[in-house]
Design brief:
The chain is an alpha+beta fold. It contains nine helices and 21 strands.
């Protein structure tokens, strides 16, 4: 490859994922600039190769057989600011930037809006695809636009917030898998010391405030990091409970009639369209899935039932089998089929 691209053959993908599993890639390319990224995609497309884009590797479970195509690891860096008295800060960030480092940097600079999403692993480019969220807020609240490379049209395309078709853990990018490669994301953030309103009971209770109140953005970030660490949701090479891909399943959104069939104790979060979101973790725990249970080298985190972990010797098949068991338990008990939040490569439930 030309430029500073690093081309590796048969590189083991377990070395690039937070689950520490995944077989070899036929071709593995690291790119550090926008031009290198687009060049690598165009070359792979011209050759007829399948393409897998990875950033931090924190939301993916890759087959033990690996990926028989071109894997492109995005390490692009850089950001730019435009601050306006009316609109606040418009910050454009390269897709390869580390998400939590960016959040910390924005808080340090006095920008609010990202604090509840502190500690989420991965890269900036992945955030709009999954419409990441935590503790009552989602990235869709602060995304102004997303610039992509459209592989189908072989051209750049920029999406405004409304064009991103954001919904719970989804977007136009996720519903068109592989087509759009995120180049950079522009966020519109408010300058200020106070957080967005706290809408999540667990966070409000920890901070000893009422729902709807605001706290200092620095205080809220610290609280979120403490809560995430307690659940094993902060990456730590020394903590096998963090050798995960975060929440493995999405919280189900049910029709109102189906939600009525749930036990009274089941969490319920009414949605604007009349449906009801419930907790995947609650469903798992109340269908007999237990923290700490294992299958070969895979385990249910001892800190959070929704995190499937590699205890040190797991294969992708081990983790998948544990996920299938948990999914079947919930289906048998409640009639609800959980959907994976983790991207499955070469695998299916």
């Amino acid at each position: 490859m030309r430029g500073d691209n690093l081309l590796l053959m048969s590189e083991l993908l377990a070395n690039y994922t937070s689950l520490h599993v995944g077989g070899p890639a036929n071709k593995f390319i690291r790119v550090s600039s926008e031009s290198e990224l687009v060049e690598a995609i165009k070359a792979a497309d011209s050759a007829g190769d399948e393409v897998l884009i990875i950033g931090g590797g924190s939301n993916v479970l890759i087959s033990d057989a690996g990926f028989n195509g071109t894997v492109i690891q995005v390490e692009t860096k850089g950001n730019s600011f435009h601050i306006d008295a009316c609109s606040g800060g418009m910050i454009t960030v390269a897709s390869g930037e580390n998400w939590d480092e960016f959040v910390a940097f924005m808080i340090e600079k006095g920008f609010a809006g990202l604090e509840s999403m502190s500690g989420i692993p991965g890269s900036v480019g992945a955030t709009p695809i999954q419409n990441i969220g935590a503790y009552g807020h989602e990235i869709s609240e602060v995304v102004a636009r997303v610039r992509c490379w459209d592989r189908k049209e072989s051209a750049y395309k920029t999406f405004s917030n409304s064009e991103c078709e954001f919904s719970y853990r989804s977007s136009i990018f996720k519903s068109n898998p592989g087509r759009y490669v995120v180049i950079e994301v522009t966020f519109q953030l408010r300058q200020g010391e106070m957080s967005l309103p706290i809408t999540y009971s667990e966070l409000a209770n920890y901070l000893k405030v009422e729902l709807g109140e605001r706290v200092l953005i620095t205080e809220l970030r610290k609280a979120v990091l403490v809560l995430r660490a307690a659940k094993g949701m902060l990456l730590d090479e020394k903590d096998r409970n963090s050798w995960s891909a975060g929440s493995f399943f999405i919280n189900p959104i049910l029709d109102a009639k189906d939600a009525e069939k749930l036990p009274v104790s089941a969490p319920r979060w009414p949605q604007e369209d009349g449906r009801v979101k419930t907790s995947a973790a609650w469903l798992m725990e109340n269908s007999g899935v237990k923290k700490g249970e294992t299958h070969n080298g895979a385990g249910i985190s001892s800190k959070h039932v929704l995190a499937l972990v590699n205890t040190g010797s797991a294969s992708a098949d081990d983790i998948l089998e544990l996920a299938r068991r948990a999914r079947k338990a919930v289906k048998d008990k409640f009639g609800i089929l959980l959907e994976a939040e983790v991207a499955l490569v070469g695998l299916n439930l």
